[in-house]
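User: I'm preparing a small set of examples for a lab meeting where we compare how different chains pack in three dimensions. I only have the primary sequence for this one, and I'd like the structure in token form so I can line it up with the others. Please keep the answer compact; I'll paste it straight into my notes.
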Amino acid sequence: MKYRNLGKYGIKLSEIALGSWVTDLSGAEAERIARETVDAAFDEGVNFFDCADAYSGGAAERFLGKALGQHERNEFVVSSKVFFPMGPGANDWGLSRKHITEQLDKTLLNMRLDYLDLYFCHRFDPTTPIEETVETLSDLVKSGKILYYGVSEWSPVQITEAIHIAKENNLRPLSVIQPQYNMTDRYIEDEIMGICEKYGVGITPFSPLAQGLLTGKYRKGQPLPEGSRATWQADKQINNLLTEDNLDKVEKLLALAEELNVPLSVLALAWILRKQQVTSVITGASRASQLRSNVAASGMDIPEYALAEIEEILDYHPFSRHIG
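Assistant: Understood. Below is the structure token output for the 324-residue chain.
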């Protein structure tokens, strides 16, 4: 496993991280498999584990806290997020000082921790001034409850404003972002990646395999694999990606991956890591074998001819999309 600094900062994260978004905790057997996956991550040198208060209504935080508790605190970097509703009350969501402060205390209790290494604003809150949010997060850094803070799906303007508010008011800086980034969604290359490079902000992308599209399990002209995300995902994100154009690209990428003698998933992760602005790629894994496959992307150098071929296959053109 290779490790990278979080932007210009000293903390080092494994190039491959383990996320908790799709971790199945429905029953003892599912939890046993999830625990094996966490154990496999440690065995493979993964030191970054990502979570959020909203995942499984807090159950994901409680599970991860229990699993990480079997290891020394210096052995791992852990993150969580705040924004989405965690109760019926008017202040049970968002990025106000009240909700962030109260929810962080619940997260630390869930995870059996004294502090978080990274804390993200899951989405932008139009009902709270950015100044209030940034000042609150800066205060939490000063208090030692979090070490670094950042945002997830924020626009370039919102990220830049937060960076400047912190600088102008001598507050602790925004240090990391967690955007969606993969071969089918490259919007951060247009502006956000440049902003992060300029200010030394680390990038820890989520959904690197485009909901499973870039694993090669979904093939043109073939039925959906039994039990795959496309057969049960409530919001149908993966189904919306199963277009003729995307499936054509997958066929070409699969051929290239076979030529390079790697799974398409590994090629897709290594392709993200080609960008030095990226610190760590947050992957999901439903079993330990998937995790072990993913870590092969760390340190993989994609030949120049293959990178050029990927660019031709993807045929990317800058575009605007809704963020958040």
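A couple of notes for your slides: The radius of gyration is 19 Å. The beta strands are 3-5, 12-14, 16-19, 48-50, 77-82, 116-123, 146-153, 174-177, 202-203, 281-283.

User: Perfect, thanks.
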